[in-house]
Amino acid sequence: MLYDKNPPYPHYDHLPYAKEPWKTLYVLQRLTTTLAMVPWWATYYTVMPRSIRPRSSWNLRQIIYVNFTRRVFKVTEVAGVTWGTRDPATAPNEAFLKETSFEWAEPLREDLRTGILKAEECAPYVKVGCYTWPRKPSTKPRLSTMRHSLVKTDDPESPPVKDDRTYVVGIYMHGGGYCHMSAHESSRTSRIPRGLVQKGILDEVYAVEYRLLQVAPFPAVVQDAAAVYSHVVDKYTREGKTFKIMLVGDSSGGSLALSLSRWLRDEGKLPSPDGLILLSPSCDTSHNLPETLSSYIPRPNASSDYLVDTPEPRALLQRTFLGFKGQKTGPTNEDEDRRLMQVAHSEYVSPCSPVVLERWGHSVQQDPEGEYRRKFWRYTLPNLPDALRNFRHSEILNPMLRSWDDSENPYRKTCHYPGLFASFPRTIVVCGDGERLVREVRALVSAMTKDGVDITTHWALDACHDPLMISETWWDKRVLDNIWQDIDKWASSFRSPDTGPVD
After folding, report:
1. What digits encode the pLDDT tens for the residues 307-325?
2. Which of 322, 389, 446, 454 falls between 20 and 30 A from 72, CA-CA?
């Protein structure tokens, strides 16, 4: 299958190749021409000196991987193609699960639906699927076990053995820009929970099959993650086990992990997680929305990463954040535009946007000299696109203006802490120093450090975005091993003294 055979989402209706047969023809054309470029890339970078390569340490496989992935991403913009998604309301075929077990988490309890998860602010609450690593043994009794149970024995029933072990449990939220991928074990992102379990870093991982933006708008992703979090807490409490919870997320999943941590902290309805493992976290979603300050600050490392900054994915996010269906221009009136700005520049969605960082007194690592901000206010505001000119005003576009009343913003009014990241748990952040998110991740690390978070940072040498998602076939094994070693070292203090990493 070239791409997901899902029904066309209404958000993609306006795209030029969103419908069949044009969709298949365009995807075939794009893949064919990209494959044809592979020999050219291999020849060119073999002949030319290493200084010409995106990173001089890269081998040909790394160059081809990044160039190929970046070029193929164009099909999302033009044809609305999604990759590796699943219907979150349908259970998987158990016959295809070799490493995980699937289970349902009940919808988030009504007494927990507070703050940004109030019912009137949200999509419908539904049960949420999750894949548990490692796979649990079947609960169906085997024939040999049944026969053994029929044999009488004079041995008294053994008393239950007390379990003094502390279980380190992960709740994993996959990346994919809230539009792609799945929690299924066959997904590319599943290399992360697989590694966490196989290397003995975590005892168990629950991978959340949250609703993507095509299915339900924000904060549905937080609703679903919170449902699984509550499910895991209740399960381990009911079994009488001592446990610690790590929230794990890569890329947009890292953003979701930060949002869930903030909701747990702000509402205080459930115990806070014990740690965060953030892998190339995307922490400034406002960059993906047209006509925001972040969207005018260029991201570095365009040649050494496969992430792209293009307008159509931004428009998709703009529509889906507010639940728009098939509207090309996004918000159509002042109230809708104001709400979009509230969501996009909230601590739950873009904690490291320039607007949020300055609101909480943090430095803006993306634009330390204020160069792009000055240009934005001077040249962008007076020259808005026609689609926005009819109803968007400067006080809406600029949420930092004092005249903009944000007191009723549901994404801000529940926060009662003195710091943006105050009382967040111990955190490890992994980021490739060759990826496009490097500046906003630096802003995240700086802000968390200033707010007193116990934070560890690993900068993966010459790595592109989300390196742990990439197979060792395509990336430098030494770089990947160094990441795993640092995560294991960081997590070792959470484990029981009698347990250790598995080779």
Report:
1. 987 655 566 666 666 666 5
2. 322
Q: Is 6 helix (H, G, I), strand (E, B) or coil?
A: coil
Sheet of 275-279, strands arranged across: 101-105, 128-133, 204-209, 166-173, 242-250, 275-279, 426-432, 455-460
CA distance 189 to 467: 10
Indicate the helix (H) or strand (E) that contains 452.
none
Pick the closest to residue 423 from 403, 380, 453 (CA basis): 453
Cβ burial of 383 (10 Å; 0-12, 13-18, 19+) is exposed
Instruction: Please tell me the distance from the alpha carbon of residue 130 to that of residue 208, in angstroms, as a whole number.
Output: 5
Residue of 273, 293, 275 lying closest to 284 (CA atoms): 293
Main-chain phi, psi angles of 487, to 5 degrees: -65, -45
Distance CA 255, CA 273 (A): 15
CA distances from 213 to 67, 105, 179 (A): 27, 20, 6
* Predicted TM-score of the model (pTM): 0.90
Which residues have C-beta within 8 Å of that of residue 398, sequence separation ≥ 6?
Answer: 293, 377, 381, 404
C-alpha 82, offset from chain centre: 16
Q: How many CB atoms lie within 10 A of CB 50?
A: 10
- Look at the block and give the residue holding tokens 């996009």: 344
Angle between helices 334-344 and 311-321 (to 10 degrees): 100
Q: Is 182 exposed, middle or buried (0-12, 13-18, 19+ CB in 10 A)?
A: buried
DSSP per-residue letters across 93-132: -GGG-SS-EEEEEPPPPGGG--GGG-GGGSPPP--EEEEE
CA atoms of 410 and 346, how far apart (whole Å): 9
Rounded to whole angstroms, the Cα distance separating 399 from 410 reads 15
Cβ(454)–Cβ(485) below 8 Å: no
CA 431 vs CA 93, 251, 459, 461, 467: distances in Å: 35, 10, 5, 9, 8
Burial of 235 (0-12, 13-18, 19+ CB in 10 A): middle
- 331, 319 in Cβ contact below 8 A? no
